[in-house]
Amino acid sequence: MGVASYAGEKAGEQLQQLQVQAQKLADEMVQRGELSAEEANKFVDDLVKKAQQPVVEEETPPKQKEPRRIEISEEGESSSEDSKQTEDADRLRSQVEALKEELNRLQKE
After folding, report:
1. pTM, rounded to two decimals
2. How far is CA 87 from CA 11, 47, 97, in A?
3. Domain boundaries of the chain, sorted by first residue
């Protein structure tokens, strides 16, 4: 409860500071002739009302109610992607071995 009351006090203090600053600004604008007294009061009231409105938080994606499912495959099972990669790796190993043999043959000549 202490944190909530502290936050409420801080919010109240900041609201009062905003109101004082808005009133000073409005008074200056009235003195310069930029606003009438009535417009200045409306300006201050609107600012205070906006400050009192609760802040709308961004929408967060809905939380999943259950954990996502993970598919576990047996060691003997592999996806077609894995088997293709294995085949590619084996083919490359064979090519490297053949190139090594050819290099050795050329070095001996």
Report:
1. 0.42
2. 66, 69, 15
3. 1-52, 81-109
Cα(39)–Cα(43) distance, integer angstroms: 6
Per the rule left: phi > 0, alpha: psi between -120 and 50, beta: everything else, 33 is left
Virtual torsion, Cα 11, 14, 19, 20, nearest 10 deg: 150
* Residue 75 confidence (pLDDT): 63
Task: Collapse the DSSP code of 33 into the 3-class scheme (helix H, G, I; strand E, B; otherwise coil) and give the result.
Answer: coil
- Region 8-35: mean pLDDT is 84
Task: Tell whether the torsion through CA atoms of 34, 38, 45 and 30 is positive or negative.
Answer: positive
Neighbouring CB atoms inside 10 A of 26's CB total 21
Predicted pLDDT at 64: 65
In whole angstroms, what is the distance from residue 8 CA to residue 14 CA?
10
CA distance 86 to 92: 10
CB 40 within 8 A of CB 26: yes
